[in-house]
Structure formats: structure tokens, C-alpha cells
Design goal:
214 residues, alpha+beta, eight-stranded mixed beta sheet, 33% helix, globular, Methylthioribulose-1-phosphate dehydratase, MethylthioRu-1-P_deHdtase_MtnB
């Protein structure tokens, strides 16, 4: 769908939802030093074409301004005239939307997701088992086990984006960058937020469990 055919009220709704999520996550200190990025798809996916709103690069995410977000296309290029630059990691968002058809992608840097991704980095995945919040991913088996992929944190974002297709698991809506942060997604902002909160809880449990084994 062309951006010009997407109703203005749809764009406003997406931008308002993103602003609310940004404010909530900022209150949790999930955007230290302007890090992290949030995006939501605007309109439907039409073949290989789609658009999404994403946080602008280098902005203070504890503040709410008209310059917090811009809309980009499936290649991560601004779809409207703007002086804003999309997040440096926009290409990773592009791949996740293309591969999953999701409605929102949230990325944050936290102490626990950094520590646990580094600890399991050589294994390329974080193993999690028997923790209640695995149910947040609609996995209901008793003593359920999942693995969250861990990708290397290259300086070249396009090199990371190329690795995303090889690790995506439709049952596990998240990917970690080693010693960097988590990308979590969902059908909409509510589900992406739910998944992100579950991952963060699971990573904290996993880290504290390792401490208890010392």
C-alpha cells in the first residue's frame, strides 16, 4: 500500500501509541543514553511493500516532541520529506517486518539482557525452561523450554540484518544482539510490549539463577 493511501488518522494512531510506549519504557530506564528504538507498521503489507513509523536517531526518549518519530519504507528510507534520520538499526526492523508480518517491533538495552546475552553468546542462544512467563508466548506445555537466538553485535548493521532470517523462530518472538539488547515483536503494540516484558523477566530470572549456582 502506498503511504498516500493510508488515512491520516491511522498515522496519528500509530504515532500516539508509539509515544505512549516510549514514555512507559523511558520511565523504566530502558533507553539509557538515547539507546533503543521502537517501531510500528503503518497500513497493510502489500506484497513486498510496507511502511512503519520508527524512533528518530539520537533523540532523548525521556521527552515527548513532534520530532520523535518518522515513517520509513520497507528499505528503511524516509517515506516523507523530513530532516530526521531513522534509527541506525532500522534495517533490522525491516527484516523482522518482512519475515514475520508483525505490527510492532520494540528494542531496548537493559542490564539483564546485556549480561545474559554475553554469558550465552558463544552458544548462539539463551536457553530458558520451566519459567512461568514462557506462557506469554502462547506456549503452554508443562516445563516448557525455549531458546532465544543471540546474534553477534557487528558495527555494520546490514551484516546483522542478513543474519536475522537464519535465526527467526515463529514461536519465539525475539532476537538478542550480544552485549547489546533485545528485539521483540508482536501483532500490535500491546502484544509486542507483552513479549518484551516477558523476555526481560525471563532474562532476569536466568541471570539470578546463575548467581544462585555459584
Amino acid at each position: 500500500m502506498s503511504l498516500v493511501h493510508i488515512p491520516a488518522e491511522e498515522k496519528r494512531r500509530v504515532l500516539e501509541e508509539l509515544a505512549d510506549v516510549k514514555e512507559l519504557f523511558a520511565a523504566r530506564n530502558w533507553f539509557p543514553g538515547t539507546s533503543g528504538n521502537l517501531s510500528m507498521r503503518v497500513g497493510d503489507i502489500d506484497g513486498d511493500r510496507f511502511h512503519f513509523a520508527i524512533t528518530a536517531s539520537g533523540k532523548d526518549k525521556t521527552k515527548r516532541t513532534p520530532e520523535d518519530f518518522l515513517i520509513v519504507d520497507q528499505e528503511g528510507r524516509p517515506a516523507e520529506t523530513t530532516s530526521l534520520k531513522p534509527s541506525a538499526e532500522t534495517l533490522i526492523h525491516c527484516e523482522i517486518y518482512r519475515l514475520t508480518g508483525c505490527g510492532a517491533v520494540f528494542h531496548v538495552h537493559t542490564v539483564f539482557n546485556n549480561l545474559i546475552s554475553e554469558y550465552y553468546g558463544e552458544q548462539d542462544a539463551v536457553p530458558l525452561q520451566g519459567i512461568e512467563l514462557i506462557k506469554a508466548f502462547n506456549i503452554w506445555e508443562e516445563n516448557a523450554a525455549i531458546s532465544v537466538p543471540v546474534l553477534p553485535n557487528y558495527a555494520d548493521i546490514s551484516a546483522i540484518a542478513k543474519l536475522v532470517p537464519g535465526v527467526l523462530n515463529e514461536k519465539v518472538p525475539g532476537v538478542l544482539l550480544r552485549n547489546h539488547g533485545i528485539y521483540a515483536w508482536g501483532r500490535d503494540a500491546f502484544e509486542a510490549k507483552k513479549h518484551l516484558e516477558a523476555f526481560e523477566f525471563l532474562f532476569e530470572v536466568a541471570y539470578r539463577s546463575l548467581l544462585l549456582q555459584k
